[in-house]
């Protein structure tokens, strides 16, 4: 009985706290007290909102809407490779399949098909036909009203790597390589590293940005090319082996919302069967830094073609 009376007393005390008829207070405060505290918090939060709005206005007023102030690692463009599956780390992936088993490579075929979908001719009808040996001038004043041209990329230039099954049915797989987008970061006067390319039997054109893929395992070049140090069995499309500077510099999605990154297709024609090959693809231009510490300028993946 005593416990029940205590509970009733506590309940009456709580109800009196919620609303006290004698003092005409709610939650311990009368109307004047509630009015003062509401006015205080109204001005307090209005001040905070105004401070936030002024701060954002000042910061946004210092930013260029077209070019990011900081690009950090993107100041040195890297490359990415498709199909990109089973990623274990940021810069590695695996392409492992059995030539006689279509099911083992279908996921790679589907990934490449999805990746190439935006490059269909139907989705590029409004883009510009650009001269392959030209380049956009950096010093032109582009704006939303006068944007830089967005060049078409004709996937017919990718040869047999333009359509399924991308050579996987023959055990001659294709990969697609593109340089990651970095605003304003290309120079038509930046030649590739000629000596490195020539050492791999690659042609040289100073108006091209080059991709070169090779076996990254020391002393194991024969697994990829059958002749150490020679890339005759690694074929590149477009046939002139490089990306034209027509597509550079990139001005950002604000000015080029329909931009298509140029691609280089690489087909490995004579991979040694049932052997894991560490393939490394590099982009060659003066503004692309080859840095293992920062993992920029190259992409490494595992390629294994089983019988």
UniProtKB/TrEMBL annotation:
Keyword list, A-Z: Membrane, Signal-anchor, Transmembrane, Transmembrane helix
Transmembrane spans: 38-63
Cell compartments where the protein resides: Membrane
Chief subcellular location: membrane
Keyword Iron-sulfur in annotation: no
Recorded topology in the membrane: Single-pass type II membrane protein
GO molecular function: ATPase activator activity
Gene Ontology biological process terms in this record: intracellular potassium ion homeostasis; intracellular sodium ion homeostasis; potassium ion import across plasma membrane; sodium ion export across plasma membrane
A GO CC term attached to the entry: sodium:potassium-exchanging ATPase complex
Family assignment from sequence similarity: Belongs to the X(+)/potassium ATPases subunit beta family.
Protein name: Sodium/potassium-transporting ATPase subunit beta
Lineage, highest ranks first: Eukaryota, Metazoa, Chordata, Tunicata, Ascidiacea
């Amino acid at each position: 009985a005593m416990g029940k009376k205590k509970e009733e007393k506590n309940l009456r005390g709580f109800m009196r706290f919620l609303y006290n008829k004698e003092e005409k207070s709610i939650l311990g405060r009368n109307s004047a007290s509630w009015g003062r505290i509401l006015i205080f918090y109204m001005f307090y939060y209005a001040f905070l909102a105004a401070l936030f709005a002024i701060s954002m206005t000042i910061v946004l007023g210092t930013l260029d809407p077209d070019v990011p102030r900081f690009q950090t690692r993107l100041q040195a463009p890297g490359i990415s490779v498709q199909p990109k599956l089973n990623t274990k780390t940021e810069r590695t992936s695996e392409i492992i399949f059995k030539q006689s088993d279509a099911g083992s490579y279908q996921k790679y075929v589907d990934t490449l098909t999805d990746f190439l979908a935006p490059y269909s001719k139907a989705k590029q009808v409004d883009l510009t036909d650009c001269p392959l040996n030209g380049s956009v001038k950096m010093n032109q004043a582009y704006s939303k009203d006068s944007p830089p041209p967005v060049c078409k990329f004709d996937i017919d230039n990718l040869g047999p790597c333009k359509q399924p099954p991308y050579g996987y049915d023959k055990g001659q797989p294709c990969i697609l390589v593109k340089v990651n987008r970095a605003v304003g970061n290309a120079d038509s006067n930046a030649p590739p590293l000629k000596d490195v390319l020539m050492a791999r039997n690659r042609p040289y054109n100073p108006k091209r940005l080059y991709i070169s893929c090779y076996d990254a395992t020391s002393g194991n070049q024969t697994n990829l090319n059958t002749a150490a140090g020679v890339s005759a069995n690694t074929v590149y499309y477009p046939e002139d082996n490089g990306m034209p500077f027509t597509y550079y510099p990139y001005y950002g999605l604000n000015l080029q919302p329909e931009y298509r990154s140029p691609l280089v297709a690489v087909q490995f024609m004579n991979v040694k069967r049932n052997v894991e090959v560490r393939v490394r693809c590099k982009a060659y231009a003066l503004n692309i830094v080859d840095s293992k510490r920062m993992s920029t300028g190259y992409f490494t993946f595992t390629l294994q073609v089983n019988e």
